[in-house]
Structures are given as structure tokens and as C-alpha cells.
Design goal:
By secondary structure, this protein is α+β, with helices and mostly antiparallel strands. It contains 37 helices and 28 strands. 52% of the residues lie in helices and 13% in strands.
Length: 1053
């Protein structure tokens, strides 16, 4: 019996039987029966009043249902072969696989631990039962029926059943008075239509399939007109808040026009197809991609986003600043550089301005609109490329990872268009116009795709010049003229130059500056995750195999080979981006690429070369692999949520009420809100309206919140790694230096990226031009010419407004003591120091650093009614106040442990040679050692617990700015563990080392380069006196060698 059918049909039958078996298990497990216990037994079952009856039945139910479906279906396929209609069996198998796709997607998601929702079993099982029943009974009566038409009939029934819910969506967007009971009634009516429609269609199809076929176009017309209403879900639902009650997003009329336009577009396409194809015999042509995309919106893009403000000001800021900066006059990629390109970073913000009120609270909602619209362009592109609505649907539904992937899909499908390939001159003309758009949209990936597609451009240009009538040159001429005019009258030439420079400059350092090694992930032993997110590596070999087999084709070989070759090259170009950062325990960039490769690139490679049945198998692969990555929500919960009249929100805050109108009304974390409002008050008190500041915290969203334009194109120091970009930024700052720089404010330091190490050129500028000051929890930098400071003036402190049983507003209730708010200053206050408060002079009698408390010998002066204005002046020793300022700088820009940076840089000493210049050899400056016995030149036996070498610099006239890189050759003999080294230095009035003037790092055999210039306490010394190198874990080495010690200075060339 089985031998008479193909492997394709057998595969589909097994999949169908598996789903029917899973359905049977689900039904049996849902059976509730009264528990029956044979004795007074205590166990989990009796504690929970449960039973094992359904568990025992589940496995037999699966076995027999699987077997029964398998036998019946195989027998049916054999009958169709007997009546000489084997092609119908293949079509029937294809329908089984198509209706199995939801189940296969859900099953695949189990790989990453996502549960399999019941509807992903029920819907496929109902579809397979429907198709199989009709197909089987028609085979018995030897009636001919097309399985494809049966599948479309069931689709029509399902989409018609959604009409009550689609009507409710419209009502929910225009009225706030709908009750929950009304919602339940609409759901009940929809389910009733689905169930009745299912059985009526089943019975009617068995009774009169000819009439059913005639009704299909009309049923599709009705159902698809309803689907067009899903575009209404792009309009945001009402938001119910606990503190402000019912609220809604402030939308513009343009959003209304957009939604109405999409609805009319879908309706027009549905009606057009109905009129054109109702009697054509090909029912599938009646399916409108625009209407079907409405359903996809309901499944993927329909849920209104809450007005969240992310606490991650770095990434959130990347999406807020671009479009806002352009509206203030900045030129994209010149005055402001979007880190990921216009599409990913700026398009949602543009939509926020066009369709909403432009505040930060609308960002995620406008990003939802951006995803839906770009998803539509990609969906239509795939549909036009393949002619398959199903392929386009599953590809866009499963695709994740950002707007850029929708955007790139549009160009690939356009450049691979068969219609465009018919005219080579037109192809070149279109490529000339679209390639710059691809680059400016997403520069890193855009440049890759344009370079890869240049093969196509060369081919079409060559064909036009040598094989086509060259008199048909006008498309190329028109495109060239348009480009020339655009370059002349717009800044697009500067934009292109800026985008290319940014990619080239960052490309050289991207792996080191942002990379995470794969080993970090592999050490976690999450084997399934690694397989899933690295599964994309299978597709480039598939492309190569395809190229190998296509090379023997004798008809239009280049037309088949070149697109595949372009996609292969494009995938190769994406490898550095993809493997550059592999975050542990998340899909990360490899998972994003896997999603794109499986859902988009694989069908672009294979679709045009496959037979119909293999196209179905390809969709099975796409569905299974695309779903395994976990971007898509494999449930109807989102579709159900789109019917909700309200979305429920945590308490919201009003930005306008607190002077932060750019935030809007939003959900903001309390600590984040406190920090933002405090910073805004500080800036408003120290800057004029319209003045900007320099934010060095990498919290670049703060520029937008504070309504102050960024002074430099790359707004987050974390992204400002290339020296050329730092030089550009510093040149702009020198020409118009901001009055204030924000040094420290809960800085974002991804990958340990302190300013002094990651941005040395910018750091030196800041060190030269700004003086630090602690204010209300922040460390600000004031321009030196605006902020005069001397030891006679002192340093201002402020009371910490705490009140408890001992303190009232920062003053002790019973003693002459206060609590200050500056955790840095308290470290340097000493007994005997002088404070001036409201004209009274106080002397310190006691200091409690842990509690930020200071006691005085004198009685505290009168306190003003407004406690927040009470400030006192600390006048300590000159050395103490100097150390306090250096403490502020160190806390803002540096760290005291360099870990393995000296080893890493030392290994690259040869390539870094041109980046530094020698100041002085220091081997001859060695004057002393401790717990070390020299056994030969530069080699020492470790003889104690505190081994170190001392170098005298007192006779050399140089400062910390004259050189900041200590380079030496280090060897640890008989190493038992990683040697830990510490360098101490001293200068100016200091005659000996101290812990503050030191840095720790891990030592390794070979050259070490220690960047002491990344430490303000080194850089600010005017006369260096000496330094020592200490092995802090003396047991790590039995002997050590330190030689070729030299001082270098960075060269910023």
C-alpha cells in the first residue's frame, strides 16, 4: 500500500497523522472525570483531588488516531491513483502540509523552551480533517475535487468568522462605553459562525462540490473585505491608567489618512480581483495580498504599545535623537550620525512626529507603525517575486530583528524582478536610483548589499552596451540626470560621504570595540540555543550547491546564477557583523541573521528553481526554522488582544508638568524620573534656554528630554571610538565649547567603556577645558574660563535633606553636626578644616565618612526656611581640595583595574608602534627593589611577600601629560597563577607612593603597555618624581623579569 505513493505524499501523511494524534492527546487530557481512589491513600493526586485516568488514555489515543488517519489517507491516495488522478494526490499532500504549518512552527518553538499553544494544534487538525474528509469521500464516489479549492474554502470560512470581531475593532476605537459583556458577545458570534460555517461548508462540499466552487469567489470577497478592517488596529486603543484614568495617544490626522488609505487599497484590490478572476478557474487569484496582510497585522502588529520610557537612555536615545536633530537643522550623517542608519534609528521617530505628537512616549507606538508599513513593503515585494501569498505571509510573520531587514528585502526583490530584467537599461537606471537609498537607509548592511549587487549592475550594463540596442539609453540618462540634480540641490553627497566614512572608520575597530567572543556563550553549554541561532551557516553552502548545479544549465545561465551569487556574497559580507558580537544566553546577532536567512534569503535563492511540491516543502523548512528562533508570537493571543478596547497601564507621569515636555505622558521608572528631573533642574539653573551641554554619560536620550541639541555628531561616547571621529567632535567643541559637560550621572559603561580608555582624545580635551563640580548627585564639568576656583575660595557643599530620629533636614537634632550630600568630599574633610556657613566660621571636630556626617566645635548658624538652598563652603588644605577634584575626575572617567588591557595592547605592540612615540628609556632609572634578589640583569628571585621595583624620575623634567604609556617586557617564571601587577607613581609635593595613585592589572609574559594617561591622577601631575612596579601576588612567580622599561606618549594621527 505504502509503496504506491511518493515519499512527498508519505511525508505529508505522517505530518498530518502526527497532528491528528496530538489533537487526540489534547482532547483526552482535557477530559475531567471524578477521581476514584481504592483506599485511604495520600499523595499528590489526593492532595489536589486529581486523577491519572486521562494520562493513561492519552498514549493509546495518540497511537490509534495516528494509525487510523495514516491508513485512511494512504488508502485515499491509492484510490486517486486508481482513477488516474495522481496529481490530485500531490496537491492534497501539499494542502496537508500547508495547514500543518502553524503546528510545525509551534513545535519548532519548543526548541527554545516556548510552550506549544493549544490553538496551534486545534486549527491545523480541523483543517486537515476538513480537507481529508472531503477528499476521501469524493474519491469513494469517484468525484473530482481540487484539494486546493477545499483549502481555500476553509480559509474563506475562517476569515468570514472574523467579521464580527473586525466590526468590534472599529467600535472599540471610536467609543469608550463598550462593556466586557459586549466583547464576549462578539467573540461568541464569531466562534458560532466559525463552527457552523465549518460544518455547513463540510456538508455542502460533500453534497455539491460544483456549487461550492461557484460560491468560493463570493465567500472570499466577503471575508477579505472584512480582513481589510484589521488595518484599523494600527490606530492606538485607549489607555487605562490608575492615576489619570482613561487617556489616549495624541494622534494627527495623517494617521487617519494612512489607515483609511490602507483600507481602501485593500478593498479596491479585493473587488478588482473578484471582478477579474471570479470565472477564471483559478480561485487563488482572488486572494488579495493587501487584504491578507490585514490578517498578518492582526497577528503581529495589532497590539497598542504602552507609552514606556526606557531606562536604557543609550539605546533609547539612538531612536529619539536623529529625526529631532534633523528638524533642528542637522544634516543626516553629517551633523548627526545615526549609529544603525536612518531606517532603524530615525524612521520610527519620524513617524512619531508625523502621526503622533512627537514626544518620547510615542516612540514604541510609532515603531509599531513603522514595522507594519515596512513589513507591508517587504510582504508585497516577496509576493511579487514569488507569486505566493503563503510564502510572503509566513516569511514576514516569522521575520524578526529590526526594520532594516524589511527594508533590505524590498531592494533584493526589486533587483531580482523578472519584469525588470527584461530591459537591461531600465535595470541599470533603477539600480542607480535605489542603491544610494539602500546605503543611506542602513549604511553597514546597505553598503554590503550594494557591493554584492554590483555584479548584477556590471552584467546588465555590459549586456546593454554590447548585446542590446544602445539607442535605448534614455532610462540610464534620466536616472543619471536625476542623481546629478539631487546631488546639486540637496546635501545627499555630504550624507553619502558621512555614511561611508562612518562605516569605514567603525569597520576597522568594530570587532574589538563592540565584540564578544563566542566562547562566552559556549561555556554556558546551551547547546540548543547555539544550534538554533547559528543555523544560518547551512544556507551559504546551499547557495554554493545551487550555483554548482545551475552552472550546467544551457538556458539563461547568467540570469539564474547571478542572483544566487549576489545573495551568497551578501551573506559573506554579513559574517563580520553577525559574529562581531555574540551575546550569551540570547539569540543576539547570529539569531537575527538566522531569522533573515531562513525566512527571506533562502526562498530568494531556491524559489524559482523548485517544482510546486518542493516549494511547499521549502515553506515547511522556512516555517520550522524561522519559528525556532523565537521572534514571532506563536499564539492567537495577540489577535485576541487587538480586539481590546483598552490597554492597561501602570501609573504615568507628565513630562510637561515637570519641565520635560519632550517626554510627554509616559510610564517612567521612579528612580529614572528622579534623575531626569534633577538633571533638568541643574541644567536650567546653570544654562540659558537654547544652550546645549556635553553629555559624557552615554545617556544620549537626555539631550532630547532636556531639549538641548547635541553639540557633536556621535552623541554617545560609547560609540565614539575611532580617533578620527573624536577629532571631529573635539574640533566642533573647540569652536563652540558648551558651558557645561555632564561627567557622571549613572554613566552607561557597556564593555567597561570609561571615557579615558575608550575616548582618549576627547578625554584629554575635557581634562584641559573643564573643572569638575559635584551637584545634587551628578558630577558636572564647568568651563575653566567660567568657573574660577582657588584654595582661598573653597568648595561648596550642600546639606542632604534627611529627617529621622537623629536628623532634621540634614542637621543633627541635638548636636552641632550636619550631613552633606557629597560622598566624594567627605573623604577629604579632616578634623580642623574650616567651613563657612551663612557668614559663620565653623571648625571640624569629627568626621563620620560612612554616614556623610561632620561635627563642629561651634554652634550651627541659623538655617534658612528653604533647606534646599542651604550651602556651606569647605576650605580645606590645598592638597585635600586638589585630591577631591581628582577624585571626581577619576570617578567620572577612569577605573583602578585595567585587567588584561596591558596584555592585549602588548600583544599588538608592533601594530601600535606607529600610534605612540618614545619619551624616555627608564631601565637606567631603577634605583631600588624589595623582596627581590637579582640573579642576572633584569631577572629577580622573589624572596618575600611584597616584591617591587622602584624607578626614580625626579631628575627627569616631565609631567603626566608628557607621556602616559609605560611599556615593558615582563616574564613570570614557574607561573602558578596569573601574576597581578600594580604600578604606583608620585609627583609634585608627594615623595612616596599611595594607593590612590596606583593602578592594578593582570600581567602576562611578553610586552605590556599600561595606559597611565587614562588616569587623571597621572595626567594632572606637573612634575613626576617616580613610580614603582609591584607584584601583588608574590606566589604567582618564583622569578620575574622586567626589562626594556620605557615611557611613551600617544600619537593621535
Amino acid at each position: 500500500m505504502v509503496k504506491k505513493i511518493s515519499s512527498y505524499e508519505l511525508f505529508s501523511v505522517v505530518i498530518g497523522a502526527l497532528i491528528i494524534g496530538a489533537f487526540a492527546v489534547k482532547v483526552v487530557l482535557g477530559i475531567s472525570s471524578l477521581p476514584f481512589y481504592p483506599d485511604f491513600i495520600v499523595g499528590y493526586i489526593t492532595w489536589e483531588e486529581d486523577t491519572k485516568f486521562q494520562d493513561i488514555l492519552a498514549v493509546p489515543a495518540f497511537i490509534f488516531s495516528f494509525f487510523l488517519f495514516f491508513i485512511v489517507t494512504i488508502n485515499t491516495l491509492n484510490k486517486y491513483q486508481q482513477i488516474k488522478k495522481p496529481n490530485l494526490g500531490e496537491e492534497f499532500s501539499g494542502q496537508i502540509l500547508i495547514w500543518s504549518l502553524p503546528f510545525l512552527a509551534g513545535f519548532s518553538s519548543l526548541l527554545l523552551g516556548v510552550g506549544l499553544n493549544s490553538e496551534l494544534i486545534y486549527l491545523p487538525a480541523a483543517g486537515i480533517f476538513f480537507i481529508t474528509t472531503i477528499f476521501r469521500l469524493h474519491a469513494t464516489h469517484e468525484k473530482i475535487v481540487r484539494p486546493k479549492e477545499i483549502g481555500i474554502l476553509l480559509l474563506a470560512v475562517l476569515i468570514i468568522s472574523l467579521i464580527p470581531l473586525e466590526i468590534y475593532i472599529i467600535l472599540s476605537r471610536v467609543s469608550t462605553s463598550l462593556s466586557a459583556s459586549i466583547n464576549e458577545k462578539f467573540i461568541f458570534i464569531s466562534m458560532l459562525i466559525a463552527i457552523l460555517g465549518y460544518f455547513i461548508a463540510l456538508i455542502y462540499s460533500l453534497y455539491d462540490p460544483t456549487q461550492t466552487k461557484k460560491l468560493l469567489p463570493f465567500l472570499l470577497l466577503v471575508g477579505q473585505l472584512g480582513l481589510s478592517l484589521f488595518y484599523v488596529t494600527l490606530y492606538p486603543a485607549y489607555i487605562l491608567t490608575p492615576n489619570l484614568g482613561l487617556m489616549k495617544y495624541n494622534t494627527t490626522i495623517w494617521l487617519n489618512f494612512l489607515i483609511m488609505g490602507l483600507i481602501f487599497l485593500a478593498i479596491i484590490d479585493v473587488v478588482r480581483r473578484y471582478k477579474k478572476n471570479s470565472y477564471s478557474g483559478n480561485i487563488s487569484k482572488n486572494i488579495s495580498p493587501f487584504a491578507l496582510y490585514g490578517l498578518l497585522i492582526g497577528l503581529k502588529f495589532s497590539n497598542t504599545s504602552l507609552p514606556y520610557i526606557s531606562t536604557d537612555d543609550y539605546h533609547f536615545g539612538e531612536g529619539l535623537l536623529g529625526w529631532w536633530s534633523y528638524l533642528q537643522g542637522a544634516i543626516p550623517y553629517v551633523g548627526y550620525i545615526p549609529a544603525h542608519g536612518f531606517i532603524d534609528d530615525d524612521l520610527p521617530r519620524a513617524f512619531s512626529t508625523i502621526f503622533y505628537d512627537g514626544t518620547a512616549s510615542t516612540f514604541y507606538e510609532s515603531k509599531r507603525i513603522a514595522n507594519a508599513l515596512l513589513g507591508l513593503t517587504a510582504y508585497i515585494s516577496i509576493f511579487l517575486f514569488s507569486g505566493s501569498s503563503i510564502l510572503a505571509f509566513i516569511a514576514i510573520f516569522l521575520l524578526g530583528g529590526g526594520l532594516k531587514w524589511y527594508f533590505l528585502t524590498l531592494f533584493l526583490c526589486l533587483w531580482f524582478s523578472k519584469m525588470l530584467w527584461k530591459n537591461h537599461a531600465r535595470w541599470v537606471a533603477i539600480w542607480l536610483l535605489t542603491a544610494p537609498i539602500a546605503i543611506l537607509g542602513v549604511p553597514p548592511q546597505g553598503i554590503s548589499i550594494v557591493i554584492a549587487s554590483a555584479l548584477l549592475a556590471i552584467y546588465h550594463l555590459w549586456y546593454f552596451l554590447f548585446k542590446q540596442d544602445r539607442r535605448n539609453w534614455y532610462p540610464i540618462a534620466i536616472s543619471s540626470l536625476i542623481l546629478l540634480i539631487v546631488v546639486i540641490i540637496t546635501p545627499i553627497g555630504w550624507m553619502m560621504d558621512g555614511a561611508l566614512k562612518y562605516v569605514i572608520e567603525n569597520g576597522a575597530i568594530n570587532q574589538i570595540a563592540y565584540g564578544l567572543p563566542w566562547a562566552l556563550s559556549l561555556s554556558q553549554k546551551n547547546f540548543i540555543l547555539e544550534i538554533v541561532r547559528m543555523s544560518w551557516v547551512v544556507v551559504p553552502p546551499i547557495a554554493l550547491i545551487t550555483l554548482y548545479y545551475l552552472r550546467v544549465s544551457s538556458v539563461d545561465t547568467e540570469k539564474k546564477l547571478l542572483p544566487v551569487l549576489v545573495l551568497f556574497i551578501f551573506m559573506l559580507f554579513l559574517i563580520p557583523y553577525t559574529l562581531g558580537r555574540i551575546d550569551p544566553a540570547s539569540v543576539s546577532r547570529p539569531g537575527v541573521l538566522a531569522s533573515y536567512v531562513w525566512t527571506i534569503l533562502l526562498p530568494l535563492i531556491l524559489w524559482r528553481f523548485l517544482a510546486p511540491k518542493n516549494k511547499v516543502l521549502l515553506m515547511v523548512v522556512i516555517c520550522f526554522m524561522g519559528a525556532s528562533i523565537g521572534f514571532a508570537t506563536l499564539s492567537f493571543e495577540q489577535l485576541g488582544a487587538s480586539f481590546n478596547q483598552f490597554v492597561y497601564s501602570p501609573p504615568v507621569k507628565s513630562g510637561a508638568a515637570s519641565g520635560l515636555s519632550n517626554i510627554g505622558i509616559a510610564i517612567v521608572d521612579d528612580a529614572h524620573w528622579e534623575r531626569l528631573t534633577t538633571l533638568n533642574n541643574l541644567l536650567n539653573n546653570n544654562l540659558q534656554e537654547g544652550d546645549t551641554y556635553l553629555d559624557l554619560t552615554s545617556r544620549n536620550a537626555q539631550y532630547f528630554y532636556m531639549n538641548r541639541i547635541p553639540p557633536i555628531p556621535v552623541t554617545a561616547p560609547y560609540n565614539l571610538v575611532p580617533i578620527s571621529q573624536q577629532k571631529t567632535a573635539v574640533n566642533l567643541l573647540r569652536s563652540k565649547p558648551p558651558k557645561i559637560a555632564l561627567f557622571e550621572g549613572n554613566n552607561i559603561r557597556h564593555d567597561g567603556s570609561v571615557l579615558a580608555l575608550r575616548n582618549p582624545y576627547l578625554y584629554q580635551f575635557v581634562l584641559d577645558n573643564y573643572i569638575p563640580k559635584y551637584m545634587d548627585g551628578f558630577i558636572l564639568g564647568f568651563r575653566k574660563e567660567d568657573f574660577q576656583h582657588s584654595s582661598n575660595v573653597g568648595i561648596t557643599a550642600k546639606l542632604k535633606l534627611i529627617t529621622d530620629e537623629n536628623w532634621e533636614g540634614g542637621r543633627h537634632r541635638y548636636e552641632n553636626a550636619i550631613v552633606i550630600d557629597d560622598p566624594y568630599l567627605i573623604k577629604y574633610v579632616a578634623v580642623g578644616d574650616k567651613f563657612v556657613w551663612n557668614g559663620d566660621v565653623l571648625f571640624v571636630s569629627r568626621v563620620w565618612p560612612e554616614g556623610l556626617a561632620i561635627w563642629f566645635e561651634q554652634k550651627l548658624p541659623y538655617q534658612s526656611p528653604d533647606l534646599s538652598t542651604d550651602k556651606i563652603l569647605w576650605i580645606g588644605s590645598k592638597n585635600a581640595m586638589t585630591e577631591y577634584q581628582r577624585e571626581l575626575l577619576h570617578s567620572s572617567f577612569s577605573q583602578s583595574d585595567f585587567k588584561k588591557i596591558p596584555i592585549s595592547w602588548g600583544h599588538s605592540a608592533r601594530s601600535l608602534e606607529s600610534k605612540m612615540s618614545k619619551v624616555s628609556d627608564l631601565d637606567s632609572r631603577l634605583i631600588n627593589s624589595n623582596d627581590l634578589l637579582m640573579i642576572k640583569p633584569h631577572v629577580y628571585q622573589v624572596n618575600g611577600v611584597n616584591p617591587f621595583l622602584v624607578y626614580d624620575l625626579s631628575r627627569v623634567d616631565f609631567s603626566g601629560r608628557d607621556g602616559g604609556l609605560i611599556k615593558f617586557n615582563f616574564t613570570c617564571y614557574d607561573k602558578t597563577t596569573d601574576p597581578m601587577l600594580q604600578i604606583f607613581w608620585w609627583g609634585d609635593e608627594a615623595k612616596s607612593p599611595s594607593e590612590l595613585y596606583s593602578v592594578k592589572f593582570t600581567g602576562g609574559n611578553g610586552i605590556l603597555i599600561v595606559p597611565l594617561d587614562a588616569l587623571p591622577r597621572w595626567s594632572l601631575i606637573k612634575k613626576m618624581n617616580g613610580f614603582k612596579v609591584n607584584l601583588t601576588n608574590s606566589s604567582a612567580c618564583s622569578r620575574l623579569e622586567i626589562k626594556d622599561v620605557a615611557l611613551f606618549k600617544r600619537k593621535f594621527n
